Amino acid sequence: MILDCLGQKCPLPIIELARAFPSVAVGDTVTVLADDPAAEPDLKAWCRLRGQSYEGRSGDAFLIRRLT
Amino acid sequence: MVSFDAASGLPLHPLAREAWLAALDDGWADPARLYGSARRARQLLDGALASMAAQLGCRVDELHLAPNGTQALYGAVRGIRAARARAGSHVVHSAIEHSAALHACGEGPATSVPVDLLGRVSLDAFEAAVQPDTVLACLIAASHEVGTVQPRVDVPVPVLVDAAQAIGRTPLPSWDLLAGSARKWGGPSLGLLAVRTGVRWVSPWPEEGGFPGSLDLPAVLAAAVALEAVSLERVAEDARLRPLVGRIRAAAGAIEDVEVVGDPDERLPHLVTFSVLYVDGESLVTALDAEGFEVSSGSSCTSSVLEPSHVLVAMGVSTHGSVRVSLSRWVTEDDVDRFCQVLPQVVARLRG
Known about the structure:
By secondary structure, chain A is α+β, with helices and mostly antiparallel strands. Chain A has helices at 12-20, 39-50; strands at 2-4, 29-33, 53-58, 61-65. The model of chain B has no long low-confidence stretch (mean pLDDT 95).
């Protein structure tokens, strides 16, 4: 799944991710496209708080894996 | 309206206000001149310096006055590099120093030492970052953004302690250079930099031995009076404010998807920061203002540069929905209880 959040300010990408997450199967990944400077710390923090895995970024693409 | 933003600034302490008003009539002359009113001004200045030095635990000749805390920090780093150029220019600093210190450190070779989730610097990493050409280590006494008090470091180079939030609030760690801001302890805008005898520091400005600009004597007198007053009140205020901050930590932490950040125990008595997931900081600040509470935020939408707080980023906590509450002598228990009542309603409304 890819969530295009380019141009969105935080917390909008985080809200989108939280909304989409229930439809991601455990073990699968979501790619969040985001260019807000707060996206990286906020996605990392969200994964830590939610017990999910922040897998890294490539440019504006952030990869998140559902663990639980 | 209740100010919950003591870390940004405070009204003058009542005794400092009195001293400042009196000095407008009595202490306006240039203390460096040789006539009667100037000698009177010199006496007042000497008394104020002696008082501040005593409160800070240093000698009068170790104390330099600066226009503000920002310049004190900036001048501390630049002045060490200028004085110790032959020894090297490398500087070690924590990732959560004040931006003025970070800017000065970044003008030459520097190593930034990370902090953990609570905002505590790793002592091993900090000490390991010191190299043969390191001339200074910078470690903030307590974070102005999250309140975490740093552990004591033991390094073979001079240590600059940014004590802007710690002075008058918490016992100071040992230091070689100490920077502070009177505005944070109930005085007017005035910075100070204390440099231990034997530490090589020179003014980075074309000014003999100090910071540029002429001295604002009424501000100095008021700052000294405020520092004496808050030092006397410190233990009682700590006992009063620490549990009130504890109530806010508990109330915020009880809201779903709110993370209270910073060290729960090793912290300043008056300051707490929390992150509210899914809400932006600007909306929180505005909504709380409408409820009568003035708070600040480390979220990018509330910053002039639209970048998230480097302190929150370094800690790895969420930067949107950030709220910093910092209490002062003017805040009552009732204010805090009302805040704890209103906060969950405000968050629920904004999450809509």
